[in-house]
Amino acid sequence: MKGRFFLLLSGLLLLSGAWADAPAKMKIVLEFQPDPLNGRKVFDVCARCHMPEAWGNEDGTYPQLAGQHATVLLRQLMEIRTGQRANALMRPFVQERTLGGYQNLVDVVAYISRLPMDPAYIRGPWSEGTPEYDKGRQIYTAHCAACHGPEGEGNAQGAVPRLQGQHYPYTRRQAIAIKRGQRRADLAMQAVVSQLDEHELELALNYVSQLEVPKTDLAPTPNWRNPDFK
């Protein structure tokens, strides 16, 4: 856990901001021991919008952060902080003077990743047994599963997002934004969205939204409230 997390962190830093145009032979390695207790304190800034449970909301304005891989959360924070990902609403809140340095970033993503997920996450409109569900399964299997996993579990080591349990309106909105050139993505994701039209993207994301999340990763009920915020 420690080695994978920190090695990926150094890789993400090399790909962000001031390091983006650095010579290939240059290597920067930064190591941090995550402190979830400090992460809880840092999360006060995030909870103002993402709420104490980090569950996002139904219309897809905010994603479900709880249960997401720490490496994915860290990558998004770094990309927004450095301007690689355009997010005017969030960018002021992830700057060093607001959220703190790299240690605080590591700590807060460690904390968020351990929160239980919303058991009432929003699924797409086509349930199992419909032609749209079957078509979405075919599309997802052919174009998405190689990176995001057959169950949408993502990949922590590769910083590939967990789609499993994410609100369908959010994943749909983000995929279409990438398709329309409104959000940057890595080359693999860009290649996939270039091959699919918007409706095919909707079908694939509908399929993954219908997949079951392991119960151990979910809060016991939709009424669960984060006990760290009393």
Task: Describe, in plain words, how this protein is organized in 3D.
The protein is mainly α and 230 residues long. The chain has two domains: 112 residues, Cytochrome c-like domain (Cytochrome Bc1 Complex, Chain D, domain 2), CATH 1.10.760; 82 residues, Orthogonal Bundle (Cytochrome Bc1 Complex, Chain D, domain 2). It is 47% helix and 0% strand. It is built from ten helices and no strands. The longest helix is centred in the first third of the chain and has 15 residues. The chain is globular, with a radius of gyration of 18 Å. The chain starts with a helix and ends in a 20-residue tail after the last helix. The N terminus is likely disordered.
Say which CATH homologous superfamily of the largest domain is assigned.
Answer: Cytochrome c-like domain
User: Helical content, roughly?
Assistant: 40-55%
Shape: globular
Detail the poorly predicted runs: 1-19
Radius of gyration (CA) equals 18 Å
Helix count from the secondary structure assignment: 10
Q: Return the domain count.
A: 2
Would you tell me the overall average pLDDT? 90
Oligomer: single chain
| CATH overall fold name of the largest domain | Cytochrome Bc1 Complex, Chain D, domain 2
Class of secondary structure makeup? mainly alpha
Main beta sheet: strand number and arrangement? none
